[in-house]
């Protein structure tokens, strides 16, 4: 019997299928195969237009059978092209070779020191407390017994936002806020950035980091402060670093002391960095002034405590032998990559 061409809705189905199958088989790339898919199976293709115009069951079955065969042919050709690409890739590339190593970043040296400081305090049983950087004059000065005539209140020393708001000059503000909401006993450490109008130098910058410790309990003395301080310094700098404590004055502590460690550059013999004293100033400390306790509602007859603060940038400089703390802020990779 002679085979006749099937025509549906003015479409030569067999001729259309032969043409589509030929285009699919001839597609040598995925892009060419996508073009054939769009041309013969797309929304505007001759086959789809014919399917939309079908009015009888037999024509619909014939057209759908062609569509299914073309879809299967496209899937098979796509698998062949993928296999060919993989073979070509295997010939050009040895996939068993190790990949190129990627350079990994690391924590900034100041961040490393901050985390180590936190670990030391956590080991002592202290709680790490975070606090806000934009503070009120009350929390930064008044609650800490700072007199109105103190030089630090000047606009030349402190960054004021308005008459009642400023960028905190020390992390002691976090201690005040904690004491306002909690009752003793209290053992906390506050860590964060502080801001002062200091002239940049090897020993100071307008923006730096501080850590302050506060202990409030019954019968705490200056001896407890010295013991805690010695433990911290030895844990941070090693047993061979010497520490000295000398009297000083701070409005929020009475009595007040200041502590130094031997200079890391000269070992205590004297150099430019330590101003030929052999010692490097670390921070202030003392027994909490009763007026501060009264400002936060603590009874100074029942409770006593000590507080002390350190510059973390100076700790990092001492720890790593950096002669200028501004180097931590300059983002010079020749420096930072050493840590």
Give a short synopsis of this structure:
The chain has 339 residues and is an alpha+beta fold.
Describe this structure in words.
- This protein has 339 residues and is an alpha+beta fold.
- Helix 1 (13-26) packs parallel to helix 4, helix 2 runs antiparallel to helix 4 (57-92) and helix 5 packs across helix 10 (312-320).
- It has eleven helices and twelve strands.
- The relative contact order is 0.10.
Which key features would you list for this structure?
339 residues, alpha+beta, three-stranded antiparallel β-sheet, 22% strand, disordered N terminus
Please give the order of strands in the largest beta sheet. Answer: 3-7-8-12-11-10-9
According to CATH, the fold-level topology of the largest domain is: BirA Bifunctional Protein, domain 2
Report Rg.
Answer: 38 Å
Separation, N- and C-terminal Cα atoms? 88 Å
Structural class: alpha+beta
How many β-strand stretches?
A: 12
- Please give the largest β-sheet: 7 strands, mixed
Shape: elongated
Total helical elements: 11
Helicity level: 25-40%
Low-pLDDT residue spans: 1-6
| Residue share in β-strands | 15-25%
Summarize the helices and strands and which ones pair or pack.
Elements: E1 7-8, E2 11-12, H1 13-26, H2 30-41, H3 46-52, H4 57-92, H5 109-123, E3 127-129, E4 134-136, H6 137-140, E5 160-162, E6 165-167, H7 172-181, E7 186-195, E8 207-217, H8 222-237, E9 243-250, E10 253-262, E11 279-288, H9 290-295, E12 304-311, H10 312-320, H11 333-336
Parallel strand pairs: 3-7
Antiparallel strand pairs: 1-2, 4-6, 5-6, 7-8, 8-12, 9-10, 10-11, 11-12
Helix pairs in contact: 1-4, 2-4, 5-10
